[in-house]
Amino acid sequence: MSREIDRTGFAGFHQVEVFSDRYWVMDQDEFLKLIIERYQRAGLRERIVRPPGAVV
Question: pTM for the full model?
Fold first, then answer.
C-alpha cells in the first residue's frame, strides 16, 4: 500500500485505519507489536514513527 501511495508522489505521512473485528478485540498493545513486526519484515523499518512514551 505504501509503495502505491509513494508512486503518486505523495511524501506525507501514510495512515491506514483497520476495520476488523479480529483486530479490534485483540489487546491493543499486542496489536501494535504485530503491526511493527510486519512493517519491519516488509523492510519499512525507517517509516515507523512511534509517539513519545510508546512502549513496544
Answer: 0.47
- Look-up of cell digits 483486530: 23
Does residue 27 lie in a domain region? Answer: yes
Number of Cα atoms under 13 Å in the Cβ half of residue 11 = 0
Helix/strand/coil for 38: helix
Residues of the chain with pLDDT under 50: none
Q: Which residues span the domain enclosing 36? A: 16-45
Longest CA span, the chain: 35
Judged on CB neighbours under 10 Å (0-12, 13-18, 19+), 44 is middle
